């Protein structure tokens, strides 16, 4: 049995993918109408197949199998504190991408701090919920340092979800978190009409600072070059489907961004704090943090990035 907590776009899409494979799935969301409506407003047009059992209480998810935590990063700590007690003996797999703004912890550390006794894993990598729900081929990374890693990898793999495994939890988490920050910046470039050349430069320099930051925090370089880093960066910086990219496009064009879960906003602030404390240079993230806070405008951000002291690549 696979349990999914959080019936937003990603949790719903994953539940649908598991059910399509014939796997027993239980889905819990805080939306009381889900059991009868059988459609998440966060993933419109996708009807839950009968095999997905929508459960009323979180404790119903704690069966013999992993439980996926599919809520926004800034909600994970609060969810575990308020509802997580029955899940603490299960293998927990965070599906969120970000850094907790209060504790500056990644998802696995947040799960550990909540008192989890099973695996503390992270599922990340380039994957839009809508693509997963449609059954399009997707490759993801399961990051887990515990002995349960391979069993979880096998349990979550389907004909359309190909799951790779790594023990580098910090690297996988930071790649997934930071790519959203760079995607906002890439969106700003496109929204402001600065062109594809500028976007390529921004994404490349963004990738350099992702690596600098992640390696300083203990990640492996090859993880940043994998699905959870470069793979997700490519997807998110080039697709209009991305909410982070769309947020940036709106900012760049001088429009009010659409209401959505945009993880890069909080992650930029958290990354700047962590980097500042360690003396790590993160010019793109710093600029995104100031832009989304409304402290500077696009023209000023571009000028600041372009006029930095010349250096070796
Ligand atoms: N969508 C995608 O394509 C992908 C998303 N992700 C990641 O998955 C995570 C979730 O994103 P996504 O599903 O898209 O977001 P959505 O905005 O679609 O849904 C978020 C869900 O989390 C629920 N939620 C919010 N706060 C809490 C809480 N405190 N307790 C319980 N549930 C809560 C929301 O409930 P309610 O509706 O009641 O507000 C909603 O169902 C993010 O970190 C994102 O980066 C990863 C890969 C792909
Ligand atoms: O993480 C994602 C794709 O891998 C989803 O990106 P957005 O949150 O920007 O929509």
UniProtKB/TrEMBL annotation:
EC number: 1.1.1.94
Positions with a binding annotation for sn-glycerol 3-phosphate: 97, 125, 127, 179, 232, 242-244
Positions that bind substrate: 97, 243-244
Pfam families: NAD_Gly3P_dh_C, NAD_Gly3P_dh_N
GO cellular component: cytosol
Keywords: Cytoplasm, Lipid biosynthesis, Lipid metabolism, NAD, NADP, Nucleotide-binding, Oxidoreductase, Phospholipid biosynthesis, Phospholipid metabolism
Any GO molecular function: glycerol-3-phosphate dehydrogenase (NADP+) activity
Domain Glycerol-3-phosphate dehydrogenase NAD-dependent N-terminal as annotated: residue spans: 2-148
Chain sites annotated for binding NADPH: 10, 30, 97, 129, 243, 263
Top-rank lineage group of the source organism: Bacteria
Subcellular location: Cytoplasm
Keyword Cytoplasm belongs to the record: yes
Reaction catalysed by this enzyme: sn-glycerol 3-phosphate + NADP(+) = dihydroxyacetone phosphate + NADPH + H(+); sn-glycerol 3-phosphate + NAD(+) = dihydroxyacetone phosphate + NADH + H(+)
Location of the Glycerol-3-phosphate dehydrogenase NAD-dependent C-terminal domain: 168-302
Keyword Lyase: no
Active site: 179
One of the GO BP terms on file: glycerophospholipid metabolic process
Residues binding NAD(+): 6-11, 129, 243
Known function: Catalyzes the reduction of the glycolytic intermediate dihydroxyacetone phosphate (DHAP) to sn-glycerol 3-phosphate (G3P), the key precursor for phospholipid synthesis.
Family the entry assigns: Belongs to the NAD-dependent glycerol-3-phosphate dehydrogenase family.
Protein name according to UniProt: Glycerol-3-phosphate dehydrogenase [NAD(P)+]
């Amino acid at each position: 049995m696979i349990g999914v907590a959080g019936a937003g776009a990603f949790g719903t899409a994953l539940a649908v993918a598991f059910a399509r494979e014939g796997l027993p799935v239980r889905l819990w969301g805080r939306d009381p109408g889900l059991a009868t409506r059988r459609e998440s407003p966060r993933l419109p047009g996708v009807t839950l197949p009968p095999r997905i059992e929508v459960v009323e209480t979180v404790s119903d998810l704690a069966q013999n199998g992993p439980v996926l935590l599919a809520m926004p990063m800034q909600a994970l700590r609060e969810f575990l504190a308020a509802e997580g007690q029955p899940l603490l003996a299960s293998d927990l797999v965070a599906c969120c991408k970000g850094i907790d703004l209060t504790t500056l912890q990644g998802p696995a550390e947040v799960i550990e701090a909540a008192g989890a006794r099973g695996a503390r894993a992270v599922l990340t990598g380039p994957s839009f919920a809508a693509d997963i729900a449609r059954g399009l081929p997707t490759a993801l990374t399961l990051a887990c340092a515990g002995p349960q890693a391979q069993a979880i990898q096998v349990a979550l793999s389907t004909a359309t979800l190909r799951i790779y495994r790594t023990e580098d939890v910090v690297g996988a988490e930071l790649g997934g978190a930071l790519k959203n920050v760079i995607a906002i910046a890439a969106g700003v470039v496109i929204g402001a009409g600065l062109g594809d050349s500028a976007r390529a430069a921004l994404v490349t320099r963004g990738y350099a600072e992702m690596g600098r930051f992640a390696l300083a925090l203990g990640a492996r370089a090859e993880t940043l070059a994998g699905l959870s880093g470069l793979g997700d960066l490519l997807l998110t910086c080039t697709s209009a489907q991305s909410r982070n990219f769309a947020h940036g496009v709106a900012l760049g064009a001088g429009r009010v961004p659409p209401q959505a879960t945009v993880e890069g906003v909080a992650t930029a602030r958290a990354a700047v704090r962590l980097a500042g404390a360690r003396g790590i240079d993160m010019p793109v993230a710093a600029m995104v943090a100031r832009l989304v806070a409304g402290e500077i405008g696009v023209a000023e951000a571009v000028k600041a990035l372009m006029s930095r002291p010349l250096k070796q690549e």
